[in-house]
Q: What sequence folds into this?
């Protein structure tokens, strides 16, 4: 059977893409699946997408990290930092450069572009929905994302594939490898949602682990808007006794960190033994001063985030940080889709997580 797999990694995902390509080549005994691409810019800031090899009749996978703010380009003689909007435009340019010649087109976008603007509460845009419709118009067959801020966005494209993958397996592996004294039962471990939007993630993990859940409700000031959102007045906790319990706070992203710190503070005040944070995307968009101070004050013990988005170099040096490597999982997703095999075991890996937990309880 002819191997029709091809990969394009935009500059924002180039390093990770090369590693994923190497993993796939090793698994499948191939030399290379990577198709070179570039998005050179004119002095005005305009750009174009270029691919350097034919992708005709290929099963093509395009990877992009819209959160990578480390890349700069020159415009009018000055250096500009690339925003999510810039990365998304480059993605469309590369898709357009393919000129409809690929047999099948899959976009791997770990952080779903504009996923925080997923619903309309007043006269405002629906950016994530518009993006998904544009992907459909451009001929994208499948979008692979991770831990979407609101999984209901899949309803925008009822006839197209959106694979919303949970990284719960990798968090479990990292957590139980790093800590050998976790007691997995309802009296010693609890998963906690920092807000009502994170409840589904927490329910999934708690169900697999066989423990209880807790949830914080964010009370907001809806009469004001600060930095694009309604400011949080307080976090109200709904859940059982936390005294002596190891608490795991689960969310899809850490932006400024202020909200998650307030949640950790309340958990510690309620007598929790240790506090761990699972967050798929560590954006840390306001620096690390707040988190450094919170760690020094003992408000949390460890932060786990994935390498699905750009990791700031200073983050990797933090004593309290643990990086979850997702490269092999992304490679497995590409391999599975290319072979037209079922995705359920990768999207929601309940069985594998339970196997790891049983092995951990058995002392292995």
A:
């Amino acid at each position: 059977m002819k191997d029709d797999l091809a990969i394009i990694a935009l500059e924002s995902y180039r390093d990770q893409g090369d590693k994923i390509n190497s993993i796939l080549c090793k698994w499948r005994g191939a030399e290379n699946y990577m198709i070179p691409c570039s998005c050179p810019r004119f002095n005005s800031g305009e750009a174009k997408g270029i691919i350097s090899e034919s992708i005709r009749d290929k099963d093509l996978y395009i990877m992009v990290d819209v959160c990578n703010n480390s890349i700069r380009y020159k415009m009018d003689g000055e250096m500009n930092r690339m925003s999510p909007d810039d990365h998304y435009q480059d993605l469309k340019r590369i898709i357009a450069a393919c000129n409809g010649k690929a047999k099948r087109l899959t976009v791997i976008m770990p952080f779903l572009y504009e996923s925080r603007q997923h619903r309309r509460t007043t006269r405002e845009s629906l950016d994530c929905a518009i993006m998904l419709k544009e992907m459909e118009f451009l001929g994208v067959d499948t979008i692979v994302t991770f831990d979407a801020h609101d999984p209901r966005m899949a309803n925008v494209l009822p006839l197209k594939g959106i694979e919303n993958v949970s990284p719960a397996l990798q968090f479990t592996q990292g957590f139980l490898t790093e800590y050998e004294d976790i007691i997995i039962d309802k009296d010693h471990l609890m998963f906690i949602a920092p807000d009502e939007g994170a409840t589904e993630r927490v329910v999934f993990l708690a169900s697999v682990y066989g423990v209880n859940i807790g949830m914080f409700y964010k009370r907001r000031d809806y009469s004001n808007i600060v930095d694009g959102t309604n400011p949080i007045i307080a976090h109200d906790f709904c859940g059982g006794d936390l005294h002596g319990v190891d608490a795991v706070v689960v969310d899809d992203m850490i932006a400024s960190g202020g909200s998650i710190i307030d949640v950790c503070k309340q958990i510690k005040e309620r007598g929790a033994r240790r506090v761990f944070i699972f967050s798929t995307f560590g954006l840390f968009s306001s620096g690390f001063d707040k988190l450094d101070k919170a760690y020094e004050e003992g408000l949390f013990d460890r932060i786990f985030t994935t390498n699905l988005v750009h990791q700031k170099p200073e983050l990797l040096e933090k004593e309290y940080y643990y990086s979850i490597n997702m490269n092999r999982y992304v490679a497995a997703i590409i391999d599975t889709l290319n072979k037209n095999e079922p995705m359920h075991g990768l999207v929601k890996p309940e069985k594998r997580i339970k196997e790891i937990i049983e092995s951990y309880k058995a002392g292995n």
